[in-house]
Amino acid sequence: MHRLKLITAVAAVLLTSPALAQEITVWDVNVDEPSHATYYAGAKAAFEAAHPGATLTFQSQPDAEYYTLLGTAFASKTGPDVIWANGGAQAKSLVGGLIPLDDKLPDLISKLVGKSAFTAPDGKLYFIPTTLQGHVVYYNKTLYKAAGLDPNKPPATWAEVTKMCDALKATKVACFMMANKEGFEAEFFLSEMANQSLTAQQQADWLTGKLHWSDAPIKAILQAWVDTAKAGWYQEGGNSQTMFMDEFTLFSQGGAGNVWGLLSNVAHWKVFEKDMGVDNVGVYPMPSPTVAADQHEGAPGVPLDGGVGYGVNKDSPNIDLAVDAVKILASPEVLANLVKDSGVVPANTLVDTSGIDSPGLKQIMGWLADRAVPTTHANSSAAELDEWHRQSQLLLNGDTTVDAAAAALDKIQAQAKPQ
Amino acid sequence: MATNTIRQTAQGVPPRSPSRRRGRAEARAALLFLLPAVLLVLVFRIIPLFWGFGLSLTSATATTPGEFIGWGNYLRALDDPNFRASIANAGVVLLAVPLFVTIPMVLAILIDQGVPGRAFFRSVYFLPVVLSSVIIGSIFSIVLGFNGQLNGALKLLGIPGVDWLGQSATALPVTLVIQSWSTFGMGVLIFLAGLSTVPKDMVEAARLEGAKMWQIWWHIIIPELRPVIEFSTVITTIGLLTSMFGLIYVLTGGGPGTATTVPEYLIWAAQGRLNQPAYAAALSIILFVCTGILAWLQIRIMSRNANF
What we know:
Chain A is of the alpha/beta class. Chain A has helices spanning 2-16, 18-21, 37-50, 66-75, 89-93, 106-109, 141-146, 158-170, 184-197, 200-208, 216-230, 243-252, 269-276, 319-329, 332-342, 359-370, 382-397, 402-416, and strands at 23-28, 55-60, 82-86, 127-129, 131-140, 174-176, 256-262, 281-284, 302-306, 308-312, 345-346, 372-373. Chain B has helices at residues 2-10, 18-56, 72-79, 81-95, 97-112, 118-126, 133-143, 149-156, 168-195, 200-208, 213-224, 226-242, 245-251, 263-273, 277-307. The A-B interface holds A 65, 67-68, 70-72, 74-75, 93-98, 181-183, 235-241, 382-383, 386-387, 389-391, 393-394, 396-397, 399-400, 408 and B 60-64, 81-82, 141, 144-147, 161, 163-168, 252-253, 255-258, 268-269, 271-275, 277.
């Protein structure tokens, strides 16, 4: 009888103690990724050491349906405490379900870059970026050599890109990989072409919807999409080729001379250096057909913004603990594991990357200091990107004109970003 | 006896016969047996339907409840070129219904007539039915890719390759062919079951009278199969309008452009990609009403024919 009373008393204490009953759940699509294992383990250990009795649980979510599941969870108020998201349109569409973090983590936020991808139109930061995402071109040095090109001198102007593509075409090799089944290649293309052809003011106008798809600088990008296809830069069948499933593997296997790739997570320097050999892969920022007044010919910019980040559900019963979990996930000590294992470029400037011996990463880190420009597609609305996916496929097939595509996109932009 | 009856009537209590009591007990038992199914339909179909309709009248997003906007989402759908394209595609899909019904019917009749290897064909035809649409989509994405096996074979014959899934002209027809391949086995099974009810003596008599094979098919077998044909048409129509999402998602992603976007795919895109559940709900209600009207029309035709 005494034992029963004792057990009841202990159970009552455990249940009424907030610290002991608390579990912070994190939804993330990379939980099963082996290269992320040390990062999550480190975050969990640091969190649980700082909050005895509380637990940090990472729940794996499917990448393809993630935002659908998240939307359903928000609607039924069963979402996790901490939410992972890609920077840009998707993250910004979720801010109604999150708390702003500006006042919660001011010290940490002052050390971060890439915040605009997670900043809502109200000017508040709703996700803490952990990685940076950006767009550069990776190229195959062996194929360059075979085409008579200097593998250590990648193109720096549009004229040089055109010349390089002509040389590769002469050896029956596609100049750039094209995988636009999901429309993602068109997203990358938009940012890669805008990096040098848009002024800083035009990039700002794009974000607010004052620069339209039918305005000359953007229409020129749509035209470049058509012209490069007509010039035979891409392999055939691009509209039925998947990007993340196939394109980057095919590039690693010598499917094309160049590929528009990323800085973090997938299709980035570490993956290509591992698959193709450090000496066989090079990297350069993509030049644009036209150079804006405040840009420099021969020194293209790198579209750069927050890659992925973590936000806090406003319906979380443990908001303070959830905020602390986000702080730990973005802390330099914990994030260093992710940088080392998976090769992401960190958003926290205090993370030490000096120990990573990669010629590609060293070049990229050098450009980030003085060549970062906004990622144009990340500053587009989800509805615009969805329509751009469709229109880009039609343009690639010759089923529509640049004017008609721009008009269709203008209509969507006007609905998504009313003036 | 007569006195008792008069007394009961006078007291306003109807006389209860044993058969009536038994009938009520049976009705209660029937209701009890039906209850689980009724509850499932009510909870998972009827209530969500009304809930979805309510949602479709709001401006709700994934994270905000939104405001009541009346028919705003429905008017938006009418003005949405992608929705109009998806309806046009649904029309093309419906035009293919006769093929989706005829092919399994013809194959089932051939099997029933005793073609050599009928057991083998019956198994082989049914095999794709047990494969998930994702697996089928993945297989055909590889086979029909620009560098896939089909173009490889065409190349051997000197025919240039075609981007079957990436060209607007070919993407939807090819998707329909694959959908037909993946589902016709079930149709064959349904028609085989129907063929077992066709009187064999009638077929035999016609044969003895010297009727040709096509005459037997046209004048005896197909008229006898009429109820099965009508049933198959109804379920094929509903299936094509509501069950092609998985295949389209894997094969083409609704593209190129809107070439393979059907209403159910657009519903997913509105919810899954654009976080617009209220608009997705409005599209769902439109699809439900269209499918309901089509099914009602077909069932009405079936009932009328059954009365002849």
